[in-house]
Amino acid sequence: IRSSQRVTIVAGNESADLDSLTSSVLYSYIRSMAPPSGAFTPLYIPLLNIPAADIRLRPEFNTVFRHANIDASHLVTLDDLLDDKGTALKPENTRIILVDHNSLQGELGKEYTARVQGVVDHHEDERRIGPDTSPEPRVIEKCGSCTSLVVRTLKPSWESSAGGSSLVSGAAHAQGDSVENDASVTRTWDAQVAKMALASILIDTANLTAEGKVEKVDIDAVRYLEAKINLSPQDAAQWDRTKFYECIDAAKRDIDALSFEDILRKDYKQWTENGLNLGVASVVKPLEFLAEKITGNPSDDKEDQFVTGIGDFMAARSLTIFSIMTTFTSSSGEFRRELYVQALSPGHAAAHRFAEHAKEELKLEDHDVASLSEKPGSMQPSSEGPWRKIWLQKDVSKSRKQVAPLMRRAMNEST
What we know:
By secondary structure, the protein is an alpha/beta fold. The protein has helices spanning about 20-35, 60-70, 80, 105-110, 145-160, 165-175, 180-205, 215-230, 235-240, 240-250, 260-265, 285-290, 300-315, 350-360, 400-415, and strands spanning about 5-10, 45-50, 75, 80-85, 85, 95-100, 115-120, 140, 270-275, 275-285, 320-330, 335-345, 365, 385-395.
């Protein structure tokens, strides 16, 4: 991409999870084949909102890439958009479409917020984007996966482009294929993209079984994407949704090789409210696993090492409050969530207010983690040192999409 070239960037959120990846790639794929009338440019580029080096923290990506025939080296990351001099692309030559978030954060937000021209998201509306984003959509709606909303929003464009896009035709001819093979190439490409999109929808909805998360738009999207796969004979013959879901889910949970800090960085978001900085990490293993990743002196107290490790992570990011949200399946087969909160003294009031407000809404219960509960009462809120608390979150339907806004409101209410 030349710095003088007009381009529309489709940017996922800064946690760069699977839903952000697939939403941005799917949106760009469809729009590049069938841009809307009045589009800023016909060139739509998906952006993975992390440095390229952090792709290694997401083992599920490589599994999805193999199914979708995507070369990871072709992905555009923050390294490509932000250089040592600031922005590699001039803001005036750029438009931004947000997927899987509706407020541009971090360095990207500082440079490109004024260039946001559309949004498709399933988080709480932060009302940072005006009502008119024409010709791009403004869709913010609760559902299991943002990718489901992208499917519904751009389905008419995808259908109108099927078999007739110059993008596919040109690629087919460049590979030596004849015009009559264009439709076959399109069906193959569509099937590969459909499998990629299904990966995040199935993960985010536990294969459409997650109570309180699955909406009609998710079910409809899965049906539509599976129909795309069935139009490609080669892909249809090998398709098994349950096996596909289990394969992606196993890859996502394969974090044993990652360090303590890398696990926290893997699926992480950060906000600033009322002068306080909040970070929230989602982890696909229990806190007990995370505590065992601490690599300090074995003779030192495990709890002290854990609290110090969290403190170092917070200091590196200037955080006032930090939360870890875990998801895992217990030995009895029960899906569980844990919630850990640690706050520095400026955030004590906000953390305490969150604990009071969220206890009923999230059905929080005091929770003991063996290696983090060696000192009686040590994890209880304290006026000295870090405020820290562990809960078992009994309402497992509430993810970071619901918990982070509760924390942010508590920060805004604190004095």
